[in-house]
Amino acid sequence: MHDTASAVYLLHSSSDNIPSRVAGAITFVYSDGTEASQYLFKGEEVTNWWFSSLNNEKAGVAWWGPNPRSTKVGVCWAAINNPQPHKEIAKLVFRPPLEGGIYAVIGVTLADRPHYVPPKGESFGGPDNWASATGMAALVEGLAGVRNEGLGYSVAALAPRWTSAGTDSAHVTVTLPASNGYVAYRYVHSEGGKNIRMIVTGSGNLIRGHVLLPQGASTADRVTVDDKAAEFKTVRIESSVYVDFTLSLPGVHEVMITYN
Q1: Which of 25, 34, 76, 115 has the most beta carbons within 10 angstroms of its beta carbon?
Q2: In angstroms, rounded to a whole number, what is the distance separating the alpha carbons of residues 215 and 164?
Q3: What is the torsional sign of CA 55, 61, 66, 69?
């Protein structure tokens, strides 16, 4: 053989007259003298040729049809990944089960890549991609804190929770393509300076800020919008402290929150 392969594809079959699950074995014998072996199991890599039935991610029935004694005999295929794909294969050795059953190899094909198994769906029990939508909602509305409270972000809530994730800076843009509504902001937290600076804009009329302060902060000292003092309220929810304020849109606003 003297070639490399990431996987081998087998056409094979086995008898079903032994009690164990082992149908046979394959050994990769490499040119450097080393070997790697694995069992081939009934119902996993191969099955009996009489009325063959096998279907999984790495094996199945390749062909079936009648013969003079049965209306259905079959041949299985199986993909076997090579445990040492960079080594040259000197030969492949196939062995039957020790109990005396029959293991028959009809064809072998070398492959230059591992057997591909398509990834499973994101979710089950509901429409496709629900899990992705849930994850995106958790990121946008939870961590980034952007929530639509009007029509097309005409009124938006802005409640970034980056301090809970230990993140000191973020650049966020959330859009609704159908209406061109959007909210965008840049967020920078200075732990040493005890302040949070945000550049905020959007397509709507109003943004309601509800900014989480870092753990250990007791209250906000001051909030400025475009270098002017702004009205704000410190809100405590269980052990978390937030700063509430409002921004009028359209326009780009610089918000500075200092805390102690």
Answers
A1: 76
A2: 8
A3: negative
Closest CA to 160 of 173, 147, 148, 143: 143
The amino acid occupying position 152 is G
Q: Nearest 5 degrees, angle CA 95-CA 100-CA 16? A: 95
Q: How far apart are CA 63 and CA 45, in angstroms?
A: 15
The position carrying tokens 């990121």 is 139
Task: Measure the CA–CA gap between 33 and 41, rounded to whole angstroms.
Answer: 26
Give the ranges where 41-177 is alpha helix by DSSP (H).
Answer: 130-137
Cα→Cα distances 28→81, 128, 240, Å: 10, 41, 60
For the chain, the maximum distance between any two Cα atoms, rounded to a whole number of angstroms, is 94
Residue with tokens 């002017």: 228
The CATH class of the 132-259 domain is mainly beta
Choose among 161, 171, 153, 162: nearest CA to 208: 153
Q: What are the residue boundaries of the structural domains of the chain, listed by start? A: 7-111, 132-259
The model's pTM is: 0.51
Cβ–Cβ < 8 Å for 21, 41: yes
- Candidates 204, 211, 212, 213; CA nearest to 148 is 204
Give whole-number Cα distances, 161 to 57, 155, 245, 248, in Å: 42, 19, 16, 22
